[in-house]
Amino acid sequence: MTNKKQLENLASLIRYYILLSTTKAGSGHPTSSLSATDLMVTLMFAGFFRFDLDKPGHPNNDRLIFSKGHASPLFYSLYAAAGKVSQREMLSLRKFGSRLEGHPTLAFSYTEAATGSLGQGLSIGVGMALNAKYIDKSLYRTFVLLGDSEMSEGSQWEAIQIAAHYKLNNLIGILDVNRLGQRGETMYGHDIDAYAKRISAFGWETILVKGGHSYPEITSAYEKALASKGKPVMIIAKTIKGKGVSFLEDKDGWHGKALAEEELKEALEELGEIDFSVRGEIAKPQKVLISKQELKSKTEGIKYPKDQPVATRKAYGNALVRIFPKFPDMVVLDAEVSNSTFSQNFKKAYPERFFEMFIAEQNMTGVALGFSRRGRIPFASTFAAFWTRAFDQIRMSQYSEANIKFVGSHAGVSIGEDGPSQMGLEDIAMFRTILGSVVLYPCDAVSTEKLVEEAAKHKGIVYLRTTRKDTPILYESRDEFSIGGSKILRKNQNDAVTLVAAGITVFEALKAYEELQKEGIWVRVIDLYSIKPPDIAALKKAAKDTKTIITVEDHFAEGGLGEAVASALSESNTPVYMLAVRKIPKSGKPEELLDYEEISKTAIVKRIKEILS
Amino acid sequence: MTNKKQLENLASLIRYYILLSTTKAGSGHPTSSLSATDLMVTLMFAGFFRFDLDKPGHPNNDRLIFSKGHASPLFYSLYAAAGKVSQREMLSLRKFGSRLEGHPTLAFSYTEAATGSLGQGLSIGVGMALNAKYIDKSLYRTFVLLGDSEMSEGSQWEAIQIAAHYKLNNLIGILDVNRLGQRGETMYGHDIDAYAKRISAFGWETILVKGGHSYPEITSAYEKALASKGKPVMIIAKTIKGKGVSFLEDKDGWHGKALAEEELKEALEELGEIDFSVRGEIAKPQKVLISKQELKSKTEGIKYPKDQPVATRKAYGNALVRIFPKFPDMVVLDAEVSNSTFSQNFKKAYPERFFEMFIAEQNMTGVALGFSRRGRIPFASTFAAFWTRAFDQIRMSQYSEANIKFVGSHAGVSIGEDGPSQMGLEDIAMFRTILGSVVLYPCDAVSTEKLVEEAAKHKGIVYLRTTRKDTPILYESRDEFSIGGSKILRKNQNDAVTLVAAGITVFEALKAYEELQKEGIWVRVIDLYSIKPPDIAALKKAAKDTKTIITVEDHFAEGGLGEAVASALSESNTPVYMLAVRKIPKSGKPEELLDYEEISKTAIVKRIKEILS
Fold it and tell me: What ipTM was estimated for this complex?
């Protein structure tokens, strides 16, 4: 174990790196780093944190998440003090190509998850702690460094309540109460009791550290924290922003600002002599092996009688149960609507792999990311509309190479009577923005089953959109579906126009085909179940053959199927006509609403006749 | 004042309407309505709620928001019991064209704000209460009916903390703890103390009602609540889901389910004889007039010297101060980054109209909606990236005819060193999905000033995107900018291609123009500062003149400027080539990142040469 003097030397070295690297970068957050330095030095080098630096992937390594990602100079400096980042590399902070980015990203191999959008780290930590306690049965602990400003994000309280609900005594938050936010004082300033009162009300153990720069106090707090039984623990430490440099300490106006060269000189003088040879040692993780769990297979094939319509959301539930034995890393999360999304099927079959997340979509996404980072394959479901709640977490997860399967049910106006608040009409646009994401929207139970399996196989972010009402079975169990694929449902050498649909509108397209065909108008019909990536070859072929494309979707016009197709064909000369939801929807029967929004058979027939006239 | 017997008769009539209307609709949430019936009957008809039913717009009317919007059958029934909805209309519930939609919308004139996505009503209430206390200085109170399930949404705790911060003793929450969520028991079941502990820890007065169906208990709770000094109040009532119908009471599996005809018959028998003639009276609002505040004008003109680059975010701050005297209904909100978004300029000039919302974007959006519903013009700002946090609230605000100006600073990779977590790269796509929204992205200080004013004039949802770094002054103070407009910056009869840019990329486009022109390649350059609605006429003219369009944007490819242009021109035969952010961004200098993402001058020149070759 490192003694107090060594800890002090390590802290001085780290403060030196923090100040030097940010000044060299010309930007960054030195003061937010300095406030948490002593908390982190003690955690890492006084024997509490257990981690094999040479094996970042060791399953029993403790996890450390900097939820206050702007303290990245401290984060990187800790590993410099541990001998894993050179001083030279420290000076590459924030420079193009450096793995030391402005906020932690996976470019740096010790980053557990990219942070920087505040109020997200604790949820990710909950996911990792759930994995340790309930799946891996590993002894690793998850530590999350939190800023006081970010405690105003509601997502924190979602994470706090769920951590208590699941009795995560392997989760330890460290709240750095340095009083100052970006533009001034936080809501509670230095009142650490205010935080303790709120957090303990939610069922956490709270440990107050009045001297957030005193090693004995901090050490004693960690000792207590590690002994907690049955409760997550929050260490709440009163610290000083800019600690260690007199003209920065507790001063407003120094957030996110690097020191000028002259100021740096003065600051470094205050730090005194630095022992550049000091290196912190980190305790090693437990060697206990994680026991592989035996899984009972409950597999059945895909069987949907052609004459019995089934909602794709039900097929999703069935698919989860069916594929689990093939993908034993699966976990399933739901935001208190498992009886609507049909993830309840999985819950019944494999209760130990289902986690109820209650109505808190932001935290659910963070938890999914935590699971994903620990090698699981999370499927998370709620109503399509409510995924908008978690857009920031979804956005951030792309920077952590997330392998998450998002599933949104109750898509579009076709849900009917519940009205606009429950209708997912921007979900495709939202998930399409994510780099490298896959967006799938099957129309029948068979293609849903197949695509759920494709989603599980695919490494990365997948969004699957399901439909509330029963839809006819269109496909055979032997049909194949792939990411980036499509199905041509109707084709004729005389096709005058190509109709591209997905999900519920596939059936409207087929009805329109029937009607038009009676009048001698031939229409190619494509089921573009993979909206991203789209089947560009099939679209280009159709564009070439029929000269005109018309899209029809149960989604707002912007960013949806129509724009995906227009975008895929934008460099060619093919006109693309788009039918989409363009009026504030109402309550009503699905058919009435499809008509009202002009995305029904009738609207398609009308539009095609207009185009061809 | 209505006596107990009358209240009971009113409650019976309301229960009758709830059951009948949902069965006739074939769907809806009768049990969630029945649990809150006695709480609401007492509020409205025992003299607590003050509202002139013939003047819903009366400024001193109390406000009532059903945050648990699925209890809409109760909501409408209250007004039926007050004589404002006929039994015949009650039977139109959830039918196409009825103003009684599945969840409350503005189609019904007593709806304060559309709800149905849980965990949003309290924030809207905070906005209304802030307006009453700090702006109107009106005595109206704001009541919010909350469900227990929705308390797991983090946004609730954002609203709770901010209401305490602003000492909103004119805000009264009524928490209907009926134990059961959609798919089973909530996290805390019937433990009303669990809620009290958490809510009071945040600085609210909490009043427990153990018998949520007892009129004396409920009455006494309201009496206490109205007497609160300096604190918001939460009435926490233990209720029974399905109360009044024995086979529904406290039973799982009855969420969101209407009774079958046979069950209805049985249920109505249990209700006993209904007095169809009973009508509830609602107390009238105070007649006190709201005093108009005197505003000191601090107006200055728009003056930006041509040789001094200014960031558009700074121009935004300047514009707020400049236009306020013309738009005295303005209020300005910011999520703790006012020194970055430059809303701090307004804060300094008009502190009484600036509300610090701390880092809680969801609540900020709800508060903005509350202000908007009370006739204010809220401007709300944060980093563009962090607006994704509030997508669900933004989405819902469109159903409340919101007049909100959203402003996102630090857009795109051009922010540089802070890295991807801070880069708004999906904000345009997000705001474009909102029906009827306006999306503006000015490139210089002058156009920003003009467009902020246009935004204030426009009734509806406007998103304004600003840039972190200083950009040259391109325009003259006399230039005009309009929603749906554009500026042709370079034009020649030999133009071989049209280059469409907005914001930061306008300058890359101009640099590309210079370089290409030297080689004899003429390019039309359009500043498409109004991305939605786009200037279709200018785009079509350019398409006709130059045959080819190329777009360049500091935003992900999906749903942004490129797709907006492709979409506007999709029915024509013009190829549109899109340059956009297509790789995970890094930290680095703005110029390095523009190059890396291939949206810089160099990339534009290269692409145009490829296209023309």
Answer: 0.97
